[in-house]
Amino acid sequence: MSQLASTPGANRQPLKTRLARWRRTPIFYPLIGFIVIFFAMAVINDNFLTSSNLVNLARQASIIAIIAVGMSLAILTGGIDLSVGPVMALSGTVMAGLMVAGVPPALAIVLGLLVGAAFGAFNGLFVAFAGMPPIIVTLATMGIARGLGLIYTGGYPISGLPPEFAFFGRGTLAGIEMPILIMIGVYAIGYVLLSHTATGRYLYAIGGNEEATRLSGIRVSRYKLLVYTLSGTTAAIAGLILTSRLMSGQPNAGVGFELDAIAAVVLGGAAITGGRGMILGTLVGALLLGVLNNGLNLLGVSPYLQNVIKGLIILLAIYISRKRTP
Amino acid sequence: MTPLLSLRHISKSFPGVKALQDVSLDVHAGEVHALLGENGAGKSTLMKILCGIYRQDEGDIVIDGQTRDFHGYQDALDAGVGIIFQEFSLIPDLDALDNIFLGREKRNRFGLRDRSTMIREAQRLFERLKVSIPLDCPIAELSIADQQFIEIAKALSLDARLLVLDEPTATLTPSEADHLFAIMQALRDQGVGMVFISHHMEEIFTICDHVTVMRDGKKVDDCHVASTTPDDLIEKMVGRRVENIFPERRCDADYDDVVLDIQSLRLDPDGPEHSLKLHRGEILGFAGLVGSGRTELVRGLIGATRPAHARISIEGKPVRLRHPAAALEQGIGLLPENRKTQGLVLPFSCRDNISLNNLAQFQGSLPLLRRGQEARTATDLMTAVRVKAPSPETPVGELSGGNQQKVVIARWLGHQCKVLIFDEPTRGIDVGAKAEIYALMKELTAQGVAIIMISSELPEVLGLCDRAAVFYHGRIAAELEGSALDSQSIMHHATGGLRS
Question: ipTM, 2 decimals?
Answer without folding.
Answer: 0.82
